[in-house]
Each structure stands twice: as C-alpha cells, then as structure tokens.
C-alpha cells in the first residue's frame, strides 16, 4: 500500500499532519512514544511485574524488541508526523500466522534475556488468547497505538485509527482488525470507530475486552 493511500484518511489536517510507514530510523523515537503510553497500562504493569525492581527497563526492552520484530517481519507500522517530528505510532500484525506465536527464535531469545521468561510467555499468551476470540480467520491485530504526550487531546488518535482502517481495508486477505482493551476510555475510543466487543479474557490478574472492527 502506498503512503499516499494512508494520507487519504487525514483530512482536514492534511496540511499539518501526515501518515506514513515508519522507517528503521524512526524506531527509537517510536519506542519512546510507546513506553510513555504503556508504562501505566494495567496489562504491562502486570506482565512485566512493576512491583519488582527494573520494571521500566524490562518494559523498554520489550517494546524495543517488539518493534525490531515488526521491522524484520515487514509488518505495518504507521506513524503520524508533524513536519519531520514523529508524534503518534500504531503497530499492526498482518493476517499472516507465521508472525503469530511462532515469532522468530532470535526475537524470543532476546525477549527472554531482556524482559524475562514470565513477560515473554505472557506476551505470547495474550496474542493467542486474543486470536481465539476473534470471529474471523484472517485479520490484523493492533498491538500498539500511542500519541506523543505533547500532542494528545487533539483528535490525532482518531486520525491514526483512520490510517489503520485504510491499511486493513486495502489488504484483500484481511477480514478486519482486533485489539485487546483493558481501560474504559480506550473502549469508548475504539467504539467510535465501529469496533465491537467480541469477548472478554483474563490474562494473569488483568481483565479486558477483545474488540474487533470488521471490514
């Protein structure tokens, strides 16, 4: 899919914000944006054991390794840019089972070394449980979505959802996109874009909803 096609989702902010696929040079900034967005997320607090020393380092390492795995596997990573500044990020897993729980062994090994055995197992378990609840065979999964703190509350999240929709709708294999939501305000955010709750699941000590937007 071309970057121009993604841009079609951005009116009326077309003149100031653009959506394009991330490059390898963007990953460091993307990791920082995602860390700030997820450091207080109940799921990640639980998975990476915030009560134990080194939580921030484990989370940073896990996000970094996830982004590297997305890049190597050529999965869709979309960024919103204000001129040259990356201000929002979304990472999708395309409908390709080869990138599911069977992620590359080097990624799993690096995750074990950086995030720990428990965190690695929980990340993979989360993905498989979400997949089992979605009423489709081939679909995208939204793994991460975040807006830079300086740019929040300006509607950029919905612009990013529009760009995600464009990516999903242009993939003929995809029946839609799923996401796992643990915070009420995030549930309302996805509801606004026609995501529907298709099931509930518990992961360790955290409960949430699996939501799905069918194309």
Automatic annotation (TrEMBL):
InterPro entries from the UniProt entry: Acyl_CoA_acyltransferase, GNAT_dom
Cross-referenced SUPFAM superfamilies: Acyl-CoA N-acyltransferases (Nat)
Top-rank taxon: Bacteria
Annotated N-acetyltransferase domain residues: 78-171
The protein's name: GNAT family N-acetyltransferase
